[in-house]
Amino acid sequence: MTILVIAEHTNAALAAATLNTVAAAQKIGGDIHVLVAGANAGAAADAAAKIAGVAKVLLADNAAYANQLPENVAPLVAELGKGYSHILAAATSNGKNILPRVAAALDVDQISEIIAVESADTFKRPIYAGNAIATVQSSAAIKVITVRSTGFDAAAAEGGSAAVEAVSGPADAGKSAFVGEELAKSDRPELTAAKIVVSGGRGMGNGDNFKHLYALADKLGAAVGASRAAVDAGFVPNDMQVGQTGKIVAPQLYIAVGISGAIQHLAGMKDSKVIVAINKDEEAPIFQVADYGLVADLFEAVPELEKSV
Ligand SMILES: Cc1cc2nc3c(=O)[nH]c(=O)nc-3n(C[C@H](O)[C@H](O)[C@H](O)COP(=O)(O)OP(=O)(O)OC[C@H]3O[C@@H](n4cnc5c(N)ncnc54)[C@H](O)[C@@H]3O)c2cc1C
User: Fold this and answer.
1) Res 186: pLDDT
2) Which of 9, 22, 26, 304 lies deepest, with the highest CB count within 10 Å?
3) Which atom of ligand 1 is found nearest the CA of 298?
């Protein structure tokens, strides 16, 4: 049994989610190979080679893979993947863009967003916005799987010494072109990787009031998230959205401020280790999942909390 893990990376460095995906592969068992498809991606391949438990790194270095456009990377993965028992990628926007195409090309079902490995062919995944957990057994010859990174503790980034092997694959499919990207710049940790997340909801009232959360987050070294209502109201950009249709987070500490606790929001944060809720409505459903609840006006409670940190 040999497992192919598709690395998530920036060419220069690996994204943290790759380590969680390798951890899922370790639970399946067997040899683990990591594919780094990029351009001038030697540094990312070297980082992948150092991950504990990785047997081999395949480096597909080609200008066509520079921005990991799924139209170009999926045919490469489908080609290489024919020799593997499992193909895994993180359930990030990138992984979710590539793997369904791979599954279709290999004519197998995809198993999406696993949170646990029961055996080499049986996995657990959330359904109904996380309200039920399905156990899925697959008889597919090649199991194509996306991994929810919050379900697996990261594999050790150091300790391995895998060989890096150059591979080639289909060239530019010519179906899409990378035009540009605008990356949000922030000194705060990335939302899905942060150990502490402070999130604001509609109760914040407007975008300017998020300054209270930024001040608290900066003292705590936290990332700042938001409910969909806060995003839809234009308080903050949508890359801050936590929930079913936003980002899935599972930090050590999640502080929900002025968030009612709709199931679609809970789907994105209820696996957090400790949940603190600040809400002026003592009936708010968020208190049902909170480890610590504060019934208070956020405009008094948050500045007070910030001062005391
Ligand atoms: C298909 C679908 C997908 C969805 N995906 C997501 C998703 O990914 N993420 C998400 O978050 N939602 C999602 N939603 C929306 C979700 O159903 C809720 O509408 C949303 O989460 C509500 O956001 P909220 O808690 O900020 O707002 P509200 O429900 O309006 O709650 C605001 C809370 O703030 C409190 N409050 C107000 N003022 C103060 C104050 N001064 N001090 C303290 N507390 C105060 C109120 O008591 C209230 O509990 C989705 C919905 C659908 C249908």
Assistant:
1) 83
2) 22
3) 42
As annotated, the residues of the chain forming the CATH 3.40.50.620 domain(s) are: 2-166
Q: What's this model's pTM, rounded to 2 decimal places?
A: 0.87
CATH number for the domain whose boundaries are 2-166: 3.40.50.620
- Residue 263 C-alpha to ligand 1 middle, in angstroms? 9
Pairing of strands 116-119, 122-127: antiparallel
Q: How far is the CA of 201 from the centre of ligand 1 (A)?
A: 6
- Taking the centre of ligand 1 as the mean of its atom positions, its distance from the CA of residue 298, in whole angstroms, is 15
Question: Which protein residue's CA is at the shortest distance from atom 51 of ligand 1?
Answer: 264
Does 261 belong to an annotated binding site? yes
pLDDT in tens, 210-243: 999 999 999 999 999 999 999 999 999 999 999 9
The burial class, CB within 10 Å (0-12 / 13-18 / 19+), for 129 is middle
- The domain 191-308: what is its CATH number? 3.40.50.1220
